[in-house]
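## Example record

The block below lists the input lines for one assembly entry, exactly as stored, with component labels intact.
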Amino acid sequence: MPEPVDPAAWSCPLPLRDHDRVMIGHGGGGRLSAELITHLFLPAFGVEPSAVLHDAATVDLGGQRLAFSTDSYVVRPLFFPGGSIGELAVYGTVNDVAMAGAQPIALSTGFILEEGLPLDVLGRVATELGKAAQRAGVRLATGDTKVVDAGMADGMYINTAGIGLIPEGVDIRPTRATPGDRVIVSGSIGLHGIAVMSQREGLEFGTQVRSDCAPLAALVSVMLDACRDLHVLRDPTRGGLAASMCEIAESGAVGIEYDEAAVPVPSEVAAACSILGLDAISVANEGKLVAIVPDRSVDAVMAAMTAHPDGRDAVVIGDVTADHPGVVVARTAFGARRILDLPLGEQLPRIC
Amino acid sequence: MPEPVDPAAWSCPLPLRDHDRVMIGHGGGGRLSAELITHLFLPAFGVEPSAVLHDAATVDLGGQRLAFSTDSYVVRPLFFPGGSIGELAVYGTVNDVAMAGAQPIALSTGFILEEGLPLDVLGRVATELGKAAQRAGVRLATGDTKVVDAGMADGMYINTAGIGLIPEGVDIRPTRATPGDRVIVSGSIGLHGIAVMSQREGLEFGTQVRSDCAPLAALVSVMLDACRDLHVLRDPTRGGLAASMCEIAESGAVGIEYDEAAVPVPSEVAAACSILGLDAISVANEGKLVAIVPDRSVDAVMAAMTAHPDGRDAVVIGDVTADHPGVVVARTAFGARRILDLPLGEQLPRIC
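Predicted C-alpha cells for the full assembly:
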C-alpha cells in the first residue's frame, strides 16, 4: 500500500533556481533577475544593495541631485502595433528617470546592429526614436554604433541611458512607502505586453491591441505640483503591476492591499490574457505608472492626474498597510484575499 | 589592340559605400561609421552635426557642465591578454568622459546576456568590471540585464554610459585645434588591438602582447594642472591614432603633420603588424590618448605627463598646421611625405 501523500513534505530535487547558466528568466525583471543582481552583480561590483532598488539611481553632483538610469531594449519584433523599439528605447529610459521625480534632460543611444540589417529598417527605427525624444523633451546627446556578425542581435539591440535633475525637496524612493499611503495606477494596464505578444505570435483578438508606450515625465510634473511629497513612483514594465507592487512592499517592508476589480484592465487585454493563460497584472506596460501617495494628498494628486491626458483614467486601487510586511494581497471581487507573488521570470520574454 | 590603361580614369561601377544594408565597417569607427551618423542618424534624430564630433557630449545642468558618453562593447573573445570585456566596458567609457577634461563620477551598465552563458563567466566579467570601476574611481550607479536566446550575443554584450563634471575654465573639443599647436601621444600604441586579435585568431608572436587598457582620467587631471587650456584630447580606440588625427584635422579644419618615426610602436606590435599586413597607427588602443596642446604649454604638459605612471612614455609626434586643412600628413623617416587617410572601416573588427 502506497504511503499517504504529504504535500508539505515535498521538496524539489532540482530547484529551478539552482542553476549554473544564464536563463531567459534572468532578464525578465522578476525574482530571477533580482537574485542575479543580489547574488552575482552586487558582490562582484562591491555595491550596496540599497543602491539598485530604484528605477533610477541618484547621483550627487556639486550640490545637485541627478537621476541616472539605463535600459537595453531587445524587443522582438522591432515593430509592433502602437510603436517600435525606437519609441521603447526612449520612453523606457526617460520614464525610469521620471520615476525619481526628475525631468529627463539628455539621453545616450547605443545601437548594436546585425550585419545585413536593411538600412531602411534602421532609418525607420531611428526616425521613431528621434520623434519620441522630441515628444519626451529629451536631447539625444551622445551615441555609439557597433555592428556584429549576421545571425546575431535579432536585427538590432538598443541601449539608452538617461539623466535628469531631481527638483529640490523631492524625495521619491521605494523605501518611503508608509502604512496609510494610497496606491494609484495612472491608467489601463497590459496593453504594451499584449500588443508585442500578439504581433510576435501572429495572434489576433478581434480588436487590435496597441502598445500604450508614452513618456511619463509631464504627468509626474503635474503630480509633483499637486503634492511635492510623493513617496514612491514606479513604471510597471517587465513583470507588470505585480512586480512593481511586490518590489515596493519588499523594499519598504510594508504590506500592500489592493482591489482586484479596481485595476483597470481593458476588455481586449482581459480577453487576450484569458486565451493565453496570462494574468494582466503581470503583463508589461510602458506608458503607465503606479504611485504611492500620502493619504492626505490623494485627492489633489488624483485631480491633477485625471486632468492630464496621460492620467485621465487614473484610479486608486489600494492601500499601504502595516500588516503582512513585504507581502501584496489582492482583495477579489468575491471578498476573498489572495497573496500576489513576484513573478519568477517574465510571462512574455523580450518585451522591451 | 586594347586601349592603353589609364588608372586615373577608373571608376568603380559599384562603389563600396553604395549599399542598402548594414556592413561590419559601419561599426568600425572609420569613414563608414561617420557616414552612417551623418546621413542616417543625424537627419533621423534632428540633431546638429556639431553635437556628435566629440567622444563625450557636454550637457548643461543648472550652471554646471556635465560630460556624458556611451559605448557598447561587443569584443570577441570576452577575455584576452591584459583584460576582458569587463575592464573595456569601464575604461572605454570613462576615458571618453575624461577626453572632455571631466573626472568620471558615475557609470551605468547594461548587460545583454546569451541564454546558457555559464554564470561563472558572467561572474568573472562582473568582478573585473567592478575592479576596473574602483581603479577608475567611478561609481557603478545603475544597471540593467536582458537575456536573449541561445546563439545570440556571443555570450554577452555590455553597454556603459558615463557622466562626469567638466571643471570650470576647461574647454576641450576637436574644433579647438589651432595652427601652431603640438601633438602629443601618451605612450606606445597598438597593444590593445594586437592583443585581442592574437587571442581571437590563436596567433603567437614570440612575446605575448598584452592589452594596455587603463583609465586615463588621472593622467588628464595632471595635464590640466599643467595647462588649463588643453585644446583637444582624444583616446585613439577604433581606427587607432590615424582615425583620431584625421577626425581632429577634419573638425578643426586644420592640417596635422607628424613624424612617423616618433610614433611609439612597440617592437612586438610592429612585428605583428608586419605579419598581419596592418598599419600600427590604425590599430585600436584603450589606455592611450592624443593631445593637441598650445605650443607655449607643451613643455609643462610633457613634464607632467612623463612624471605620471600612465604617461611616462609620452612623446611629441607632430604639429598642427594651417596648410592642407582637413588632411593629416606623415613625414617618413626617409624625408618623404604621405597623406594619412581615415580608415573606411576597422582593420580589426569587434575590438571593443
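Chain A touches chain B through 80 residues (CB under 8 Å). The radius of gyration of chain A is 20 Å.
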